[in-house]
Amino acid sequence: MPGGIVILGAGQAAAQLAVSLRQGGRDGPIRMVGDEPYAPYQRPPLSKAFLKERPPADSLLLRGAHYWTDHKVELHLGTAAAAVDRTRKIVGLRDGRMFDYDTLVFATGTRARDLPLPGIDLPGVFSLRKIDDVRRLRPALDDARRIVIIGGGYIGLEVAAVMRQEGRDAVVVEAEDRVMKRVAGETISEFFDGLHRSRGVDIRLGCRLASIDGDDSRASGITLTSGERIAADLVLVATGARANDDIAKAAGLLCEEGIVVDDFAHAAPDIYAIGDCARFYSRRYGRKIRLECVQNAIDQAKAAADAILAKPKPYDPVPWFWSDQYEIKLQITGLLDGFDAAETIGNPADAKFSVEYRKGGKLIAVDAVNDGRAHMLGRRRIAADLPEVGGG
User: Residue 373's domain is classified under what CATH number?
Assistant: First the structure.
């Protein structure tokens, strides 16, 4: 088949890249390869509204059914890349097809982090990354009274909130000494810990798992390394994600828990990587980062499109994230890297406040709870203070 642009992945980053290329005047072939049978869709609602409200899958679609056809973007769904031959500029798919390319873009996203644990493959053990994960999980939840959630990050706590709103028992088991430790400061962790406990969630901190228990019919609970057993009707594993960079690595691209790219999302001659699977250098934070968020997927895709269209602009964003738990919205901007001072503005007891983090007197991150204004101002202030020099 003729070359053109081949995009491996069919998520938010892939969709934005195709849209931006067409908007920028790119007329040649664009092919998008996705391992799910769905056109590009939103993922954040999977652990929130989509899990709770059970709307049809097409409610998540990023574009209407005819958009891709109308804009001559070929969707090859329900398959994935198996290998990339960089010398011949060919992508081989799992279904045996082969595509030539002029430009190749990895937008392969992430997958649930492997948890080498006895019982991890038992029926009744779930992860939550895709529409079909929800479709499998939702009927099991309907038949469950008590759910054990492994992991106290965004997804684990969002699911716990949905469970409590449905009147189900939820136990969150977290290995760290506080919830959301990887993404938020202590004040925010304390607030959400208290929020969930007040709604009846049983939170266990500093706990290590020994096994998931059960038999061939289903999981029946977990056992901690302390010997304590916690019974459950099902187990949800929410312990984070790892980049889908295996094919890129096999093709000889530099990978460091993600495909390493430059300021223009460029990984190698005629090859780009964008979104959750890409690792890039942030002058703002002085290190390579990999971001799992909608903001990065969209903005890095736009940066890659600009580069492909010969209008390159350096990409060094102010990251931002959000989480909805019960009636509370948490918005995070920036990264906490090595902050040496934190200031709480407002009263956490009012469920509307923010926390500002500084390093050497410089604002590097803001956590905002039910305070959209503080979030937006934080983004602007951090963006305005980008240093002029840095490594790469």
Answer: 3.30.390.30
Domain contains 65: yes
Report the relative pairing of strands 125-126 and 259-261 from DSSP bridges.
unpaired
Task: Measure Cα distances from 350 to 63, 133, 226, 354 in Å.
Answer: 38, 36, 37, 11
pLDDT at residue 391 above 60?
no
Q: How does the average pLDDT of the chain come out, rounded?
A: 94
Residue 197 φ/ψ region, left for φ over 0, alpha for ψ in the -120 to 50 degree band, beta for the rest? alpha
Can you give the pLDDT at residue 1?
47
Q: C-alpha angle with apex 152: 108 to 193, nearest 5 degrees?
A: 140
C-alpha–C-alpha distance, residues 150 and 157, integer Å? 10
Evaluate whether residue 322 is within a structural domain: no
pLDDT at 2: 62
- CA 193 to CA 126: how far, in whole Å? 23
Q: What is the mean pLDDT of residues 319-347?
A: 94
Q: What percent of the chain has a predicted confidence (pLDDT) above 90?
A: 90
Please identify which residue in the block is written with the tokens 């500029």: 89
Is the pLDDT confidence value at 392 over 50? no
Give the type of residue at 351.
A
Q: Tens digits of per-residue pLDDT, 57-70?
A: 899 999 988 999 99
158 alpha-carbon distance from chain centroid: 14
Question: What would the mean pLDDT of 200-217 be, rounded to a whole number?
Answer: 95
Q: How many domains are there within the chain? A: 3
Structural domain containing residue 347: 327-383
Burial profile 225-262: b = 16 or more Cβ within 10 angstroms, e = fewer = eeeeebebbbbbbbbbbbbbbebbeebebebeebbbbe
User: Are the beta carbons of 112 and 139 closer than 8 angstroms?
Assistant: no
Asked if residue 249 and residue 223 are part of one domain, the reply reads no
